Predict the 3D structure of the following.
Amino acid sequence: MATAVASACDREGNPYFDVIGVDLPTAEGAAKVEAINRGELPLTTTDEELLAAFAKTRQMGNLHATTDPAAYERADVTVVDIHLDVLRHDAVPSVNFDGFRRAIRVLGERMRPGSLVMVETTVPPGTCERVVAPELAAALRQRGLPEDAILLAHSYERVMPGRDYFRSIVDFWRVYAGVTPHAAEVCAAFLSKVIHVDRYPLTRLHSTTASETGKVLENSYRAVNIAFIEEWGRFAEAVGIDLFEVIDAVRMRPTHSNMRQPGFGVGGYCLTKDPLLAAIAARDLFCRSDISFPFSQQAVAVNDRMPLRTLDELRRRLGGSLTGRKLLLLGVSYRQDVGDTRYSPSEIFVRAAEAEGAAVCCHDPLITFWPELDREVTGPLPSAKDFDAVIFAVPHEEYREIDLAKWLQGSRPLLFDANNVLSASQREAARLLECPIGSIGRGL
Ligand SMILES: NC(=O)c1ccc[n+]([C@@H]2O[C@H](COP(=O)([O-])OP(=O)(O)OC[C@H]3O[C@@H](n4cnc5c(N)ncnc54)[C@H](O)[C@@H]3O)[C@@H](O)[C@H]2O)c1
């Protein structure tokens, strides 16, 4: 988002904004700040447009980063994009607002009257009205300023990390709302400079709670759609059909074109937690514990278990036990063409496989170190012949292009396609090589 805002220019090519990215003075925050100031994007991406836009901001000299909150004093607009974790240690999920409140309080203490706070963080619906606005008001009161001296709006990113990372911000429809009509107008004017609203018009909603609900509903809908398909994948495997073929046929109906497909699991920072936010909002922000979200909660539980289905299939196909088995896992990031391992299904898989006594070698073309498991990830693709099974977990381009005859070199490990990674011709090649092959969602 910082790159998108900094690279937005008028017709003459002059940038609209000077952007300062602010992070905490933690080791992680400071590393991001230093990377940006050195001219390096602090994340791994395969998106050439994002790299080009970031390089352009470097040339124009209008994107910097700091850990100094004094930056807020200079801002006309502060975009809040910090994390808000869902705590899932107990049976009942919750959100701890403490860090988020502190961040907002600093904005209230530092920002100028008439400036805009635009919240993009995915939050329990009601957060802007019931958490952010009171926090800003308290800080403004202490400064002797009117409680509404800082404008407040909400607008959510629909960013899709991967090959179209940058475009998914600037070339995509946006929803927004303001706590007051004036805040909504200032928010729309800001977004209109960053997003190509001539092609992707903004949608204004009547309240920030409505806008916050839009984000949570979108992601809950997608998580439920994925969980729903999971049971059909199992059915397809049992009765010997190819569910991907069936889904392609069903998707021909425009009303069903977004049906999801079976796979290895659901990961990343958003889909794994967002479906839990509405229940948290009902209980903690609106005192309505009587309103529940069984579909959304069940979807998260089903999706969490998905990688264990692959494990069950491997155990069954490898003679009933994984003890001492050597497994090669291809893909540890949570999504294709993304170098992010947060809440990756591969983590659930590796922990469970190793607990059963399997030795798992992990490979990923975009990851060299896997922080959640505190281990190096092998760089070059290892030879297949040292393994009992190869699990295709993430459809990174490198795996979709593997020449199996060349790579297998006569070895015949079990090839398990957990995420529709292999093409029909790769699967056919495996059969001709008499290599055992299995997959999620295909019973052929
Ligand atoms: N990653 C996505 O694709 C995506 C898509 C849509 C929405 N979102 C939402 O955007 C938000 C951020 O997601 P992310 O993936 O970028 O998270 P992240 O954890 O990668 O980044 C958040 C950053 O905020 C910093 N931070 C925390 N408190 C701060 C403070 N008080 N002041 C300054 N910096 C602070 C953290 O140190 C961290 O670097 C979340 O609400 C997420 O749900 C993310």
Remarks:
- The mean pLDDT is 96.
- The radius of gyration is 24 Å.
- The chain has 15 helices and 16 strands.
